[in-house]
Amino acid sequence: MSPKPISVYKLPSDEEMTILFENMNSIAVVGLSPKPYRLSHRVAKHMQKFGFDIIPVRPAVTEILGKKAYKSLQMIALQIDVVNIFRSRKNVAEIIDQCIDRKVKTIWLQEGVVDEESAVKACNANILTIMDKCIYKEYVRLMK
Q1: DSSP code at position 72
Q2: Is residue 107 classed as helix, strand or coil in its secondary structure?
Q3: Domain tally, the chain
């Protein structure tokens, strides 16, 4: 019997996020800026310092934070535990579709990135989805 589809997004509990942090290793950061003053760069750099493998996803850039940058999620052959989205709402639906195609386990829409319809779609594809929260702030709050 299939689970009943959800129609309203609900943020995962602190317990679910803690379990995620305890079990994740790699974070594909979609929209990771090569500019050190940008929020995406600062957040990814902190998560890298905490020991996570950062996988930059940024067209027209070959390397960020000492790691090979990919043009899209489809080009990554590596294991991805979390896709962290630093893109505007207008890009979210396409990225969510790519995540569903890749069968990623977790999608994290960064603080300020809100797309209720896409979040519901991801949840209905059995993908843990965290929306409008900063992965760095939540990691520090729950794990440090």
Answers
A1: S
A2: strand
A3: 1
